[in-house]
Amino acid sequence: MSAPEKRPHVLVVDDEEQIRRALRSILTARGYDVALAASGAEAIECSLNRLPDLMILDVAMPEMTGIEVCRELRNWFEGPILMLSVISGDTDIVAALDTGADDYLTKPFSTSELLARIRALLRRTASRVTPPPTIHAGDLEIDIARRTVKRAGQEIELTRMEFDILSYLAQNADRVLTSRMILEKVWGPEYAEDAQTLRVHVSHLRKKIEPHPSSPRHILTETGVGFRFASSEPSD
Question: Most CB contacts within 10 A, which of 17, 33, 94, 96?
Answer without folding.
Answer: 96
